[in-house]
Request: fold
Amino acid sequence: MIPEAAGATPYGIFLLADAYLDAASLAAKEPRLYSQGPTRLLSYHAAELFLKTYMRSAGETIDSLRAHGHDLHSMLTRAGELGLGVPPQIIAQADKMKRKNDYVRVRYVVIEEKSDISPASVLRFTTTIRKSVCAALNMDDQGVPKGKHWLGPLPSDYPRQDFDDAGS
Reply:
């Protein structure tokens, strides 16, 4: 079950994204002889979750999040439509990743090519997305919210009884 389906708040999704980014950073410190795929895959998944954090906070439903699949370019485009600002080079890099089908390739390719996107580049890409989401959602550098978790009203598919029981 994806975190959104479990009723996680954007902050809960963010924490999961941060855990994947931490794991990617640790994997990068111990390079594998034949493949840097794990570092890249963990980074890509963290980027996906950071973008879902923002889109969920902006009111996107689970179905709309799932409709993007693992297409980071599509997610960045939609997040931008919802107000997330990212540097233009991030959009260009996501376009390159999509053209190379890198998010899928990294999961299955055994032998890497010199033209593959470097783990360091994917880590920078993900870290930049994280910083953009933190700024947009009014989080500090550690990702702790300094205000509300939601940019607007709760998504239509969010389990409201959780808030009703809490008196909110």
